[in-house]
Design brief:
This protein is an alpha/beta fold and 254 residues long. The chain has helices at residues 39-45, 100-108, 121-130, 140-143, 159-170, 192-195, 201-206, 226-246; strands at 7-10, 29-31, 53-58, 61-63, 73-79, 92-95, 112-115, 134-137, 151-153, 187-190, 210-213, 219-220. The chain binds zinc ion.
């Protein structure tokens, strides 16, 4: 293959942070086709997980990840659509270790969120696949695992930004105040009498509405942090509503 057959990959601005610094400009980056590597492999080799790619176009025509380029040209890499369509049913997620704060926020919003702070990569993939949970991570190697059914790279270093990214990307259905933030179990209402032995006098005097986690037994009420959590919930509802209004997958009032 001579230099007239050069192959280039053009990444949208939103994916360039995955690339080596010298390739983050507007110019397409050269790829090195070897006659056996697929376009998907070349994109991954550039540093971009395929979970973040919605499609590829070669000189304007859609081509699959499995396409093996034989000549030159420019491949346009398109970002995954937002909101990203998921299989029917409530969205469910599995969070990589170190996402404890994000996990508590998603559970506060009623999003089915599995999280353990001590799981290795193979175990994460097994659980994500078995329970059809979208694996959320900042580990590109994990997203490249061949047998992972669905994963996503989470943008942001702080939990607020990470939550915003997940909500914009998937626009999941929210059911605030229905899940245990500690274990992801569903909450059920309980009377004050039922929890009297488990709460302090001050709480008993000032609170009337209680719920208990069906899985771990944790009792919940509107505590000192309630105003702050209400603000998180209100912001999340606005974010998902706006994301759904923008995106085609949700057309039809879902
Ligand atoms: Zn619980």
């Amino acid at each position: 293959m001579d230099k007239n057959d050069a192959l280039y990959l053009r990444f949208p601005a939103g994916l360039r942070f995955f690339l080596a610094p010298q390739h983050r400009g507007d110019a397409p980056m050269p790829a090195a086709p070897d006659g056996t590597s697929t376009l998907g492999h070349l994109v991954e080799a550039a540093g971009v997980p395929l979970t973040e790619v919605g499609g590829l176009r070669m000189d304007g025509e859609p081509v699959p990840f499995s396409h093996i380029p034989e000549g030159g040209g420019t491949v346009e890499v398109e970002p995954v659509g937002r909101p990203q369509a998921l299989p029917p049913g409530p969205a469910a997620f599995l969070l990589d270790v170190h996402f404890g704060s994000l996990a508590r926020r998603l559970r506060l919003l009623g999003v089915d969120t599995a999280y353990h702070n001590d799981m290795d990569d193979p175990a994460l993939v097994v659980q994500a696949n078995a329970e059809r949970r979208v694996l959320l991570t900042q580990d590109r190697g994990l997203l490249r695992r061949k047998n992972l059914w669905c994963g996503a790279y989470v943008r942001g270093t702080r939990a607020e930004a990470q939550l915003d990214d997940v909500l914009r990307r998937f626009a999941p259905g929210l059911a605030p105040w229905t899940r245990c933030t500690a274990c992801n179990g569903l909450l059920q209402p309980v009377t004050k009498d039922e929890v009297a032995a488990e709460i302090e006098d001050g709480t008993r005097r000032t609170q009337d509405v209680f719920a208990r986690c069906r899985d771990c037994g944790q009792v919940y009420w509107r505590g000192a942090h309630h105003a702050r959590l209400e603000a998180v919930v209100a912001e999340a509802l606005r974010t998902v509503s706006a994301a759904r209004a923008q995106g085609a997958p949700w057309r039809g009032g879902r």
